[in-house]
Design brief:
Blueprint lengths: L2 H29 L1 E4 L2 E4 L1 H10 L3 H7 L2 H12 L1 H22 L22 H31 L27 H11 L4
Antiparallel strand pairs: 1-2
């Protein structure tokens, strides 16, 4: 199969993923909640239903798995490397991306704090959700910065199958495809400066 055909299929998949995401998002917002500016609002009947499902703190504390409470300090100690990494990766992007001509990654596209609007969560559960949103959002933010860096310096697939590749990886050059490598590399770099 030619590289052109592979590119066409990948473009079709990307377009379908985009359409699917839009339809899912539209259905969610029509059925359950809607946005008022940046604020999320639920229909009153859903809000009342969510409040009925909410566990109060003491019930949550006694019904929670004891091992979860014991491992809490270990889990939350991970905030230290996350914040340090956040600082360094953001500093890297701010200083180097303009030099390379790479568009910056918008942090708020990856780190989203909206679960505090869920009325069926108590304050401890909301705190957990905030921590997880930061952690997983930070990993996605870092992944996109590294993906753009990889596209700039080395947009070549590996010889072996790699699990958990970023979205840009599928468009990279095939391993060992040496013909016109420098011209292709420049083409990949120019794409990074487009919005």
């Amino acid at each position: 199969m030619s590289n052109t055909k592979i590119k066409q299929i990948l473009d079709q998949i990307a377009e379908l993923e985009c359409q699917l995401s839009e339809v899912i998002n539209q259905e969610q917002t029509e059925v359950i909640f809607h946005f008022v500016g940046k604020k999320i609002e639920f229909e009153q009947s859903i809000k009342r239903y969510h409040l009925k499902l909410k566990n109060n703190f003491f019930h949550w504390l006694v019904s929670n798995r004891p091992l979860n409470l014991i491992t809490g300090p270990i889990i939350y100690s991970m905030i230290i490397p996350l914040v340090i990494t956040d600082f360094f990766i953001t500093f890297y992007q701010i200083t180097c991306f303009p030099i390379y001509g790479i568009n910056k990654v918008n942090r708020s596209d990856y780190i989203v704090f909206d679960r505090q609007h869920l009325h069926y969560l108590n304050f401890i559960e909301k705190f957990h959700c905030t921590y997880c949103a930061y952690g997983s959002g930070m990993i996605a933010y870092i992944s996109e910065i590294v993906a753009r860096t990889e596209q700039y310096f080395c947009p070549i697939k590996h010889a072996r199958k790699v699990l958990g590749t970023h979205a840009r990886y599928k468009h990279f050059l095939e391993f060992g495809a040496a013909q016109d490598y420098q011209a292709n590399l420049e083409s990949y770099r120019k794409r990074l400066s487009k919005p």
